[in-house]
Each structure stands twice: as structure tokens, then as C-alpha cells.
Amino acid sequence: MRSLYTIGGPLRWELRTQPSKVFKRYKFHGQPSHILSSKSTLLPSKPARTRFAPSPTGYLHLGSLRTALYNYLLAKATGGQFLVRIEDTDQTRIVSDAESKLYEDLKWAGLDWDEGPSIGGDFGPYKQSQRLPTYNQHASQLLDSGRAYRCFCSPAELDAIKAQNIKEGTSIGYNKTCSHIPEDVSTRRAAAGEPHCVRLRCEHEKPAPPFHDMVYGRYKTPFVPEDFILIKRDGYPTYHFANVIDDHLMQITHVIRGAEWLVSTPRHVMLYDAFGWEPPEFAHVGLLVDSNRQKLSKRLHDIGISSYREKGYLPVALLNYVALLGWSPLRTGQKKITETMDLETIISKFHLRFTRGDIRINDKLAFIQNYYLKRILAQPEYPETIQQVSNVILPNLEKAIGEVEKGRSDNPLLGPIIVPARPAEEDSNLVGKDYLRKMFEVDMKSFVDAESHVWRNANLIWEIPEESYVQALDIEMEQNTVDNFWVKHPDAAAPEGGNRPISALQDPDIWDMFDSLGRKPSKVVDLFHATVQEITDEAWTKESLEKKMKPLIMSIYSDREEHGKDRERGRRQVWGWHALRWIMVAGNVGPALIPSMELLGKAETMRRMSVAKRAALRWEQDEMKKFKDNSS
Ligand code: GLU
Fold first, then answer.
1. Do the beta carbons of residue 53 and residue 258 sit within 8 Å?
2. 33 in ligand 1 pocket by Cβ < 6 Å?
3. Tens digit of pLDDT for each residue in 566-580?
4. Number of folded domains in the chain?
5. Per-residue pLDDT, 564
6. What is the CATH number for 615?
7. Torsional sign, CA 458, 462, 468, 472
8. Residue 79 falls inside a structural domain
9. Is the CB–ligand 1 distance for residue 559 below 6 Å?
């Protein structure tokens, strides 16, 4: 707790210049950026060389994408270079396709690197397993200077030392047995092929030197470091050794990485010291945690970047979202911070003030995704951009449809795929490409992810069983207590209040404007049927559908009994939209109706009208039966 109040590191100066009211805990622990004044102090003045150094032991996930992004941003914001380096020194944990997937995911996200595997660069190779001679040469350098020594202890001996430490409750780690072996003996034993590792010689009882971290300020470990391993018995370097040598040789100026590496950094600083090198600047960004403050894990959370890809998230949205997990643009003046930013904008606003402490992931992604879709729709170059977006999303929609289709026979709410959605014969897709594209465009504004989009638009893909119509009608009539339907005379002036509810009780004269359809939804269907029937296939466009149908929609009323103390009973209100939603999609929630009708086409619309009519008649018969049963 105390540490939350500690003012240290980069925030110190700026905080002191602020009025006292800013000295609140959240100002230190939360987002420090808005209390900082000028951007010039927040970026290095020289071009930064940064790197993303993944180990191919797993796939890119939210946390590692964020690390890559911050490094990328710093390089781009300062006119520097962003490198990718593969840290594959732990050969036992390599996942075979991890490396290729990492490249694929980074490219998808648009984080192109200036140097790295496959493209090369002046400081290659960029894969650690191809740099073993470099590490050995540097290990020899430390052996020669006496800063390192060979350790011939076997794994069994090391286990025994560990057990002894545990027994004695000490944490000194390796007991330095081999540090006393004379150099010539050590060289001879190594030359004779005796297995060994190389360890750094650390000074007894002296903790590692402190260093400055851009997020955490001055960091000093209380632990006395053990003589840690530089080159393992298998000849591969440890992560620490290779990482430091490469960062130095590749002239990395800034290392931005997850806070889990903070505890390793003292060892790195010791290595820089042993070589007499200047360490880079470090920034350890907070760990991503869920709402229960649990560290995000592959096992518990669906955080793989490919799964975001498959859900249909746009790279621009995902990057924007990830950027905000521990960073935000500076506030200028009193203006509210705009959080929706494309990559270019983030680069232009980038600075090195990160949030300290764990970062809880939030649910802004859906909002951000939706923002970009809407923005794309509003662009003048609309058709091409839409095309680009749908190219990203359509394959994911297809996949999601496939998933629903697999379990469809067990789902009483879905019939077979409707005729207009079916693909041409030679096409192996479930839904025609052209149809899918148009469907996406109808409701693109509400797209968040492929799966939920398919469910939202299920009515445009699958038939709706008659049973669903009956049930929906039942709910409408019973739960919403619809009493009677009315159709307003076509020549009658709009009742006062236009299409707002009017009270039939208040002004009985108004009744003259309406003809009663009774409690008979089938009659409402007939009216729609007659109107729609007149529209020819050629005139089947959104515009003419709207023109023809609007007057009818606005003339269908229902009396409904409203519950609640303050409501009048017997209010009459426009029911036309309800009616049409019930006729077209059994009352289900989904995209706008008229564009949906345009997409479905006349034949499918008329087919739905017949299903609705049958369902209405069934419902009316049931009503009649109930009435008779009650009165006998
Ligand atoms: N190879 C480490 C990892 O997998 C890199 C840590 C660092 O950036 O130094 O995350």
C-alpha cells in the first residue's frame, strides 16, 4: 500500500509543480498522463531503436500485442526503427508454428518491422538460435576477465544444493562451489569435454545495483543475486544473457516490456555492468488483469490475437483498444481526451507515460470497433472501403454461419437456409458470397463480432418456423395485452399527436377515423400482403418499398391495455411497425426492416407473409377455442 504514495521516478518533477489538489492516490496509481505538461519531455529527442522479442513458445495475445505496439509506436514517433527478434533459446518449449503465426498476426495488425527475421537488417541474424557463436564469444570474454566461471556441477548436485537451501531456509541459490576452481583446471576440464555451464560471478552479499525504470522510477531489488547462468549445459545462452547481448549489439535504445520482467532487470543491469556497456532505457508496463484481478492467461481467457481476427475485429480497432490498456493521450487544456485513434493518430500523440500497476482490461473494444465501422461508412470513398472491410469480415461471418449450421437441426428456432441466401450450385459456401456481402452491408453499423452478428442477422439467413410466429404473437397479444386492431381511414387527417399514442377514451370522435379489425392479426397480415403484392420485382428497392409501405404502417393501430398506475387504460397506438416486424421476422430483434425486405426479395417476403398468415389463423382458432371453453 505504501508504495502507492511514493512519488519517485519520472513523475516527481511534474507532480511537484502541480497545485496540491493533484496529490491524490489515484493520480499516482491511475493514469498519470493528464497531469503532465509538455510533450517534449515525454519522448526521447533522438530516434529510438526498439524491439519486440517474442519467444516462439506461444502465440501473440493481447499482452504481447500491446508490448509490440508500444515499441512500434516509440520507434515511429521518434523516426527510429522497430525490430523483431525471435528469442528461441529455450529449445524445449518451442511451439512448432508459433513463429510463423507471430509474423502473420503482427502483419495482420499492421505492425511492420524495419529489421528482423525474413527481411534481415544490419544487425542480424535476428533469431537467437542462429547467434550461438556470438554468445559464446561474449561468454569467453567474461571468462577471460574473471567475471564469469564454468560450473561443472551436475543436475543432481544442483538439486541437492537446492534441497539444502530449502532445509536451511536460505535463498542464496547456487553455493559457488565451482567459482573456486582454478582457471587452468577449469579450461582443461572444459577442453576434455566435461559438461558445464557458465555462470556470472556476483559479489558476495551485495545486491544488484539499482536502475531507473520509466514506469516504476528507481528500482532496487532487496535480493542478493546468485551466480546466475549465462550459457546452459546444452550450449544455448539463457534468456538474460542473450537478451542483453542482443539489445546491446542491435543498438536498442529503449526496452518496453511487461512488468513481469522487472525482477529480471537487475540481472540484466549486472551484465551490462560486467561488459562495461550502457544499458538501454527500461519501461515495464503493467500486467493485464481481468475484473477479478487475475492475470490474463491463455487457459482462462480467450486472448489470442487469432481469435480476435476470427471474430472479425478490425486491426485498427484492436490496436486502438490495446494502446489504451495502460496508456492514454495527454489532455490538452480542458478538452476531453478522445480515445478513438487510428495508428497514425496514436503515433502522433505517443509519449512514454504509462499507467503504473496492474491494468484491468475493459469492454471498450465493442465500442471502438463500432466507431470505426461507422466512420468507414461515412467516408466518401465508401464503396472501396466497405469492400476492404468486408474482405476482412466476410470469411469470419462464413465461419460463424458454419458453426450455427452445425447445430441447427437441434435448434427449434431455425429452419433451413432461405432460398435467396443459398449459393450458386458450384459454390461450396453455405451462403452465397454476394448475398453475404449485401447482408453485411445492411447491418454493418451494428457489427461487433462475427458470432453475435450472425445471431443478430439469423432471420436473414435461416427460415423462421411457423411455431416461432405463433409464440411471438402469443406474447404480443397476451403479455402486451393487445385488445383490438384498427386501421385508420386513408383519407382521415392524422389524429392529434401524429403517430403518438392517442387516448380513445378521451375523445370518442376520433373513433370515427378508424375501422376495427377486431382481435384478428390475420387481417393485419392481409393488409400488408395486398400492399406488398402490388410492388413488382423491378420496383423492389428500399425506396419504393418505403414509399408504398409507410402510409400503411402508420395507419395500423392497436388498443392496448397498459399496466401501471399512471397509465390510462385503452391507449391506441401505431402498431404498424410491430406488425411488420412480426410478419417479416416473428418479432425478433435485428436490422432495419425495409432494407431487410429489399435483401430478402419479393418471393421470400411473400413466403413469410403466408407463414405469418397461417400462424395468425392458428392463433385466432386457439383464441376462439379458449373463448368457447370458458363460456361453456
Ligand atoms: N523473450 C521474452 C518474452 O518472451 C522477451 C522479454 C523482453 O522483452 O526482454 O517475452
1. no
2. no
3. 444 456 677 889 899
4. 1
5. 45
6. 1.10.10.350
7. positive
8. no
9. no
Domain that holds residue 615: 466-631
Instruction: Tell me the pLDDT of the chain averaged across its residues.
Output: 85
- The model's pLDDT over 394-423, given as tens digits with 9 standing for 90+, comes to 888 999 999 999 999 899 999 999 999 999
- Residues near 125 by Cβ (< 8 Å), separated by ≥ 6? 117, 131
If you average pLDDT over residues 336-353, what whole number do you get?
Answer: 92
Environment class of residue 193 by beta-carbon count within 10 Å: exposed (0-12), middle (13-18) or buried (19+)? Answer: exposed
* Mean pLDDT of the region 380-386: 62
Using 50, 70 and 90 to split pLDDT, how confident is the model at 12? Answer: very low
Residue nearest to atom 6 of ligand 1 (CA): 53
**CA 353 to CA 261: how far, in whole Å?**
18
The string over 331-350, giving b where at least 16 C-beta atoms fall within 10 Å of a residue's C-beta and e elsewhere, is eeeeeeeeebbebeebbebb
Using CA atoms, how far apart are residues 585 and 599, in angstroms rounded to an integer? 13
Query: Which of left, alpha, beta for 498 (phi over 0: left; psi -120 to 50: alpha)?
Result: left
Q: Are 303 and 368 in contact (CB under 8 A)?
A: no
List residues with catalytic annotation.
298
* Contact between residue 165 and residue 173 where contact means Cβ atoms under 8 Å apart: yes
243 within ligand 1 shell (Cβ under 6 A): yes
Cα of 54 from ligand 1 centre, angstroms: 5
Q: How many CA atoms lie within 13 A of 208 on its CB side?
A: 28
pLDDT at 565 over 90: no
Distance 50 CA to ligand 1 centre (A): 13
- In the DSSP assignment, the letter for residue 118 is T
Query: Each residue of 216-252: pLDDT tens digit?
Result: 999 988 777 889 999 999 999 999 999 999 999 999 9
Question: Does 348 map to a domain?
Answer: no
The span from the CA of 506 to the CA of 35, in Å, is: 60
pLDDT (0 to 100) of residue 20: 29
The verdict on residue 74 lying in a domain is no
Is residue 118, in this structure, part of any structural domain at all?
no
Question: Between the CA of residue 296 and those of 87, 303, 359, 361, 568, what are the distances in Å?
Answer: 22, 8, 10, 9, 53
Tens digit of each residue's pLDDT (9 = 90 or more) over 160-177: 988 888 888 776 789 889
What's the pTM? 0.74
Q: Which three cell numbers stand for residue 220?
A: 532496487
Per the CB < 8 A criterion, the answer to whether 124 and 115 are in contact is yes
Q: 52 CA to middle of ligand 1, Å?
A: 8
